[in-house]
Amino acid sequence: MTSRKDLKREYKEKPHIPGIFQIKNLKNGKVLLGSSLNIDGPLSAHEFMLSSGSHRNRDLQLEYKKFGAKAFSFDVLAVIELSNKPGFNVEDELQLLEQLWLDELKPFGENGYNLNDKIRQA
Fold first, then answer.
1. Domain-by-domain residue ranges, the chain?
2. 13: how many CB neighbours lie within 10 A of its CB?
3. What number of other Cβ atoms are within 10 A of residue 39's Cβ?
4. CATH topology of domain 16-117
5. Cβ atoms of residues 112 and 105 within 8 Å
């Protein structure tokens, strides 16, 4: 059995993957778009909050309860390949990617659950 200490160490040693993700309502097509410097964390956190009824996005939580877990997909849309090239900045790359996906999906109002264009998460 793996100890809690070992699990923490493994998590810290696991490479962080920056990217863009979405939570999509398969019934009506609405999405919550998000981005993170470590994409695994927020996706798991959103899924947990929704399943426990504690998600901070009221509309998303209401529809999750109404339609059920099977009506939602949790998808990674794009990841950033880390580079050692001079001038490469992961923050800048993620910001560019965020804007591209915001422009494409427009996840506001009838199209989605985002309240504004600040989609970066821890």
1. 16-117
2. 7
3. 22
4. GIY-YIG endonuclease (3.40.1440)
5. yes
The type of residue at 31 is: V
Q: Which pLDDT tens digit goes with each residue over 45-97?
A: 999 999 999 999 999 999 999 999 999 999 999 999 988 899 899 999 999 99
- What HEC string does 71-109 produce? HEEEEEEEECCCCCCCCCCHHHHHHHHHHHHHHHHCCEH
Place of tokens 């998590």: 11
Please name the amino acid found at residue 51.
S
- Buried b / exposed e across 49-61, counting CB within 10 Å, b at 16+? bbeeeebebeebb
Q: For the segment 27-49, what is each residue's pLDDT rounded down to a tens digit?
A: 999 999 999 999 988 999 999 99
